[in-house]
Amino acid sequence: MRSEFRRLLPPGAYREIVSFRSNPPNRIGVLANRLGVRVTQEAMSYGHRGYLDYRSTEKGYVPTVVVGRHLSEAWKRWVVGHELGHHFLEGVDADFILMGDAHDAEQAAFLYLESDDSNEQRAENFAEDLFFGDGALKAAVSLHGRDVGRLANVFKVPSAKIRNRMRFERL
Ligand SMILES: [Zn+2]
What we know:
By secondary structure, the protein is an alpha+beta fold.
């Protein structure tokens, strides 16, 4: 996963991510901006957590992560990581730009809503690598112990995500 993760990112981005990870909980909105992605919040129905949109601006299409205003801080952070995954994994292509031009901006031509396909799993993997990659969770466990709530607070991510990753890394 790590090599894929690295390959996907534009030059310089990997270094930004390593720096983000090195001292949790750093501000993921700042990281996103450094990676050229805007983050904004919107009211959403409770079933929805966020989506990725390419918004037309004076500077062209700007990748924009939209997170649900109702979410906890931990979930907002996770959603940003997940949607950054969609951006770097699936990205934007020429077809999209044409589609975007043909659509009313309000229609948000290209949305990633949560669904149960392999792109979702890959976006989750991306978010996990973003927060926990290069042994970051393992290091936190040796520093703080295996208390999931405490670790969730260190990383400011949902407890369930800590639990999944601990199981995956057999921590
Ligand atoms: Zn998704």
